Amino acid sequence: MFQTFQSTTTPDQGPPRLSALREEMAGEGIDAFLVPRADAHQGEYVADRDERLAWLTGFTGSAGFAAILKDEAGVFVDGRYTLQVRAQVADDFTPVAWPSTKLEAWLGERLADGATLGFDPWLHTAKEVETLDKALSPKGVTLRHTENLIDRIWENQPALPAGRVEDQPLELTGRSSAEKRADLAKVLKDAGQNAVVLTLPDSISWLLNLRGRDLSHTPVVLAFAIVHADATVDLFTRPSKFSDHDTDPDIRIHRTEKFAPALGALEGKVRIDRATAPLAVSDIVASAGAEVVWGSDPCALPKAKKSEAEIAGTRQAHLRDGAAMVEFLAWLDQKAPKGKLTEIDVVKKLEGFRRATNALRGISFDTICGAGPNGAIVHYRVTDETNRPVRPGELLLIDSGGQYVDGTTDITRTVAVGDVGDEEKACFTKVLKGMIAISLARWPRGLAGRDLDPLARAALWRTGFDYDHGTGHGVGVYLGVHEGPQRLSRISEVPLEPGMILSNEPGYYREGAFGIRIENLVVVRDAEKQGDNRDQLSFETLTYVPIDRRLVDADALDRDERTWLNTYHAEVLDKLGPRLSAGARNWLTDACQPV
Amino acid sequence: MFQTFQSTTTPDQGPPRLSALREEMAGEGIDAFLVPRADAHQGEYVADRDERLAWLTGFTGSAGFAAILKDEAGVFVDGRYTLQVRAQVADDFTPVAWPSTKLEAWLGERLADGATLGFDPWLHTAKEVETLDKALSPKGVTLRHTENLIDRIWENQPALPAGRVEDQPLELTGRSSAEKRADLAKVLKDAGQNAVVLTLPDSISWLLNLRGRDLSHTPVVLAFAIVHADATVDLFTRPSKFSDHDTDPDIRIHRTEKFAPALGALEGKVRIDRATAPLAVSDIVASAGAEVVWGSDPCALPKAKKSEAEIAGTRQAHLRDGAAMVEFLAWLDQKAPKGKLTEIDVVKKLEGFRRATNALRGISFDTICGAGPNGAIVHYRVTDETNRPVRPGELLLIDSGGQYVDGTTDITRTVAVGDVGDEEKACFTKVLKGMIAISLARWPRGLAGRDLDPLARAALWRTGFDYDHGTGHGVGVYLGVHEGPQRLSRISEVPLEPGMILSNEPGYYREGAFGIRIENLVVVRDAEKQGDNRDQLSFETLTYVPIDRRLVDADALDRDERTWLNTYHAEVLDKLGPRLSAGARNWLTDACQPV
């Protein structure tokens, strides 16, 4: 199993570790120290050795940070983790609601004039530190770079991961690393820049057409890179990952420890992304006399705009994954109404169907499987403690995905277990209308995700409903299931461009009662000319898995919406039917009848 | 009649006037001179004496400007006026497509190093001049303020208008001028500003609860004002407008000629809106030693957020105007299918029905009445030359509005004359879906017009259609039919706030064939709590006039949309029925049957 169900928290170990940290702080003469969940790569998933926040506090959520003072220890978490943090940390820690309480405000109220705030400059971006400095300098607080004090006291801290690298084949990437590097070198030359520093593992993995085994869920190679204007690359990682690997001589592999000295040897203009690179990177470059030029990670946008080969591969991954999902849904529909399943049973079985494809490299995130009221907890991850029976008469929300060599999937279906109430159906239909609105959308080139986001919400808004998450996030190809810069969200001003893969996942959550989310992945395409031949973009759907018709109030759909749903189901049957067991095929035939 | 149908252009007078202007330019030693359509108040409508662009060039459009060189005379107009400008100006003038060709670029290519560009600083804002200066100074072009050279050569230039002012009664404004001025004075005091200069007549008319008769279509008082931090006002206009008027002693009335000296006497910080105030204003204030503080017109937002009294008055104006519209539509429906009417007949009759209310103070703009292909010309204004028969089998688009003392209306209906084709009905239904989407919209407080605009377009976008104008503009209360800052448009980032009145007017235009637009006015309200009791805003509809059911493909509507349309029509019948003649009431009963 890729997924585990233990609650990994160790609240009792928090207090002694906190004492040890405070001793180190005293020794350094600092009044406060920051412990972020982030590693130097600012990723969603971190290696075991970088789980400093969980090690210190017991809090295992995927986002947050701690600010440790002499007599107070704040653990900052967002609304998703309000309940979890209380259950996971000892009394010595104080949960703080973030971002309604900002770190700089919290520190500003507690640190006296003349106090010193210490932090590891490898774990914080230049942008973050600038925000802190602006707020705290006027109050007489000094910011000081330190060694990582957690690493100093963490006995048996795991080593850096050393997963073997693999080449991502050209037929799946569509573009060789040499081509990508040549394009990037041209960008640098045109800007008069000598080099760019890359610190995001998915950018580096994409640029070099490499995949790794360093993290769970995301097949990146954990590394730093310096790409020079001559298109050669210095790569900093654990070299053992490359043993027996036949690497292009233009890619020079070094031990991670050599990264800082290499930064110090750079000259001329060096491009660095202030929103993602550790402050240490720009500090070293600047203090060695080179000129830091702030600029966004130049791999982010080309990576987001998938090649035709990547799109074709992703289509295949979705059909494979879709067939596994249908086998699963057919099984679920047979078993669940009997009332004997739990959420963990469901998660295990789903992973089993995906494994049975013999192509699964990993799950793209821990499956979210919420029965009844658990479905309303947006980022619910079932553990042995929270495991709930799947009861007839309730909704079951299942959000899951797979990593395949040809693509990354992410799909949510909400299904009726036995007969459910009219209110659930009415809400499901509103969510479906939003999800269809995005599926059917065509729009003038140049619009951003912000401009489409309201289309997914309008039906819910009309009756006073909404959902407190974005409508969609970017998705990689055998890379991160969450990637930027593209997204469908009120806060996204990034224009949508052909080739970008996004999720389309409106939802509705009624606390204590039920949760609904319907999610397909889509890819932005030049729309086929029709009507007045305007220059428009549209989405091609990648995910093919039936949507539970029993939850659809067909009278609430308009003609376009009904046609979309029926056409989609006809395509699902057509594409997946030949890939299924006889039993699942029968089930699917029924599930795909027109509404 | 408020509306006339003559083509007022005089192309033959252009060349001698151009020669006279060039003589003045030579006398001043300038190489180029700007002639904008704008007056010192930057309004949509200008007084006769300010029609300098039309006087010089013959072009009578509502927007544009000319740049006169020694040997070339460019007339800059936007896409709406491409055809019109060619018909209206003599060969000595060169039409220029604006904004694709920018003024500064056009001048930059034509003016030599050392050249001088002259302009009247009362007719250009600081923002405009800054753009010119940035582009032209590096090329060695000098910008020089001059007298207005058109005024110097224009024999028999009309005088400034002197329409009598009227008080707008408290029961219609809901707030006294003293209250509004006290609030504004507080804003100034809080910002440490001694005064604000107001140059927009609708801001001044709103602040002083005055209305005037200086311009067609907009009942403002043409004036400038200085509002002091002690809440008193110096008002600059033609004092004869105020003869017999009982004016608050805190409002000191001066001749317009005293405005410049009064600006020169200001001290301390003076707030000026760089986007709307003439450059002359800030120049005079600054050169006299006061400190210019750029800030938006402080009346714009409070004026946009209507009081309950203003909303109540506007509701009444809409019912009165709606009843006139229904009498008109009943008449039209009887006469038009016989094929004997022209567009001008229709416009005259409509104005007649509005006049018959005995409450019409003016039409809020020249009625747009486009039969068949003329409906596709978005800003079409019928003249004797363009007048077209209203033919059975075609659509007729009528966009019109009235000025009443209690409110300003603006309504568009598109009606079938006899039997029209399925394509027209399909397109009408898509436009209607967009118009209903806005009518039904509820949204989280904080969204801007940009965020709602896509809801009005989604149904059209889906088949490759769109419309090249905003979805809605702000509307005043017995003031401008176009007002800012609120709008429903891709380019509007202004948050929508309760009390703002907007038009909701999606459309579809098929060149050479037909045009469709459906327009109601709506007002933003705090939405009644429902569903999850989220903090949402919604629109209340102000316009009650039936929508042509014969053009609706009811099968393409969803349940919400059908319910909205049927409920709307039931309300129309309920509200207007008692106000109608027997014949019109019968017609309306039929027109309001459910779909």
Descriptive terms for the model:
alpha+beta, 6-stranded mixed sheet, homodimer
General description of the model:
2 copies of one chain form a homodimer. Chain A has 18 helices and 28 strands. In chain A, the strands form 8 sheets. A 6-stranded mixed beta sheet of chain A has the order 4-3-2-1-5-6, with helices on both faces. In chain A, strands 12-11-10-8-13-14 form a 6-stranded mixed beta sheet, with helices on both faces. In chain A, strands 21-28-27-24 form a 4-stranded antiparallel beta sheet. Chain A is an alpha+beta fold. The radius of gyration of chain A is 25 Å and the shape is globular. In chain A, a hairpin with a 3-residue loop joins β2 and β3 (73-77). At the A-B interface, α15, β21, α16 and α17 of A face α15, β21, α16 and α17 of B.
Topology:
2 copies of one chain form a homodimer.
Chain A: H1 14-28, E1 32-36, H2 52-57, E2 65-69, E3 73-77, H3 82-88, E4 94-97, H4 103-110, E5 116-119, H5 126-136, E6 142-145, H6 149-153, E7 166-167, H7 170-173, H8 177-190, E8 195-198, H9 201-207, E9 210-211, E10 224-228, E11 233-237, E12 251-255, H10 259-264, E13 269-272, H11 279-287, E14 291-294, H12 300-304, H13 308-335, H14 343-355, E15 362-363, E16 368-371, E17 395-400, E18 402-404, E19 407-408, E20 411-416, H15 422-440, E21 442-444, H16 449-461, E22 472-474, E23 483-488, E24 501-504, E25 507-510, E26 514-517, E27 520-526, E28 536-541, H17 559-576, H18 582-591
Parallel strand pairs in A: 1-5, 3-4, 5-6, 8-13, 11-12, 13-14
Antiparallel strand pairs in A: 1-2, 2-3, 7-9, 8-10, 10-11, 15-18, 16-17, 17-20, 18-19, 21-28, 22-23, 24-27, 25-26, 27-28
Helix pairs in contact in A: 4-5, 13-14, 13-18, 15-16
